[in-house]
Write a structure and sequence with these properties.
alpha/beta, Rossmann fold, DNA polymerase, domain 1, 2 domains, six-stranded parallel sheet, 10 helices
């Protein structure tokens, strides 16, 4: 029986990746780096989960002297902290909305007595900013568990964040459904044993989601009975 819904954040609950991209570029300017992460470049960088990990990966691709590479790697924590501050400010001003269908599904789940969780590779500060911007103090859709990537050893596609969410919910994977938008997220959820629904974003639309239990353009119109059937059918055929 379905007991909980577990959501990825960026790209799944809301299309926040463009806001992240803008925040990275603004942080680069503050640090006088003058890098420019264009949309095509950022789409490729999203294959690396986690902001600090993404920065380190990018620095590794630069043709710079070894001493400069070490300097750049050393400032990654401060650079990412600045990016997070800018991202939060952008959210407060622009209030990047939840994707279509998200809020009705959250409310339907709450009304049916299901638990809600977030399992994201982003920081807790980013989670708080997005949830506060969209939900404020709406207790009818409060999340029971918020598991963030800054508290697990390995980020997606590793299953650590989903295992943490399941442990915090005190529920088996067989009683939960995960919602993702990326291949890394899908792999993490499936490795954790979760039935997974994927709603690709514009950043991940070209990825291969053949391993998903259900792929939809959005969560709009998705009702709990369909999810109950999906969960039952998936475990019946396992």
């Amino acid at each position: 029986m379905l007991a909980a819904l577990i959501f990825d954040l960026d790209g799944t609950l809301a299309d926040t990746e463009e806001t992240h991209r803008q925040a990275f570029n603004a942080a680069f300017i503050e640090f006088a780096l003058w890098w420019d992460w264009s949309p095509p470049l950022y789409a490729k960088l999203l294959a690396v989960s986690g902001g600090k990990e993404r920065l380190r990966h990018y620095i590794g691709t630069l043709r710079v002297p070894a001493a400069e590479r070490e300097r750049l790697l050393a400032i990654v924590p401060a650079l990412h902290e600045t990016k997070t501050r800018i991202y939060t400010e952008l959210l407060v001003r622009g209030q990047r909305p939840f994707r279509p269908g998200v809020l009705p599904l959250l409310r339907a789940a709450r009304g049916a007595g299901l638990k809600l969780a977030i399992a994201s590779t982003t920081t807790s500060a980013n989670v708080d900013a997005l949830v506060q911007a969209n939900l404020g103090d709406a207790r009818d859709v409060a999340f029971d568990v918020v598991a963030c990537g800054d508290v697990v050893p390995a980020k997606k596609p590793a299953p650590d964040i989903y295992r943490l969410a399941l442990s915090s919910l005190r529920l088996p994977a067989e009683a939960c459904i995960a919602f993702e938008d990326s291949l890394n997220g899908l792999r993490a959820a499936k490795t954790a044993g979760l039935v997974t629904v994927v709603t690709p974003s514009r950043w991940t639309a070209e990825e291969d989601f053949a391993g998903a239990d259900l792929v939809l353009p959005s969560l709009e119109g998705l009702e709990l009975p369909r999810l109950e059937r999906l969960l039952g059918e998936a475990h019946a055929s396992a």
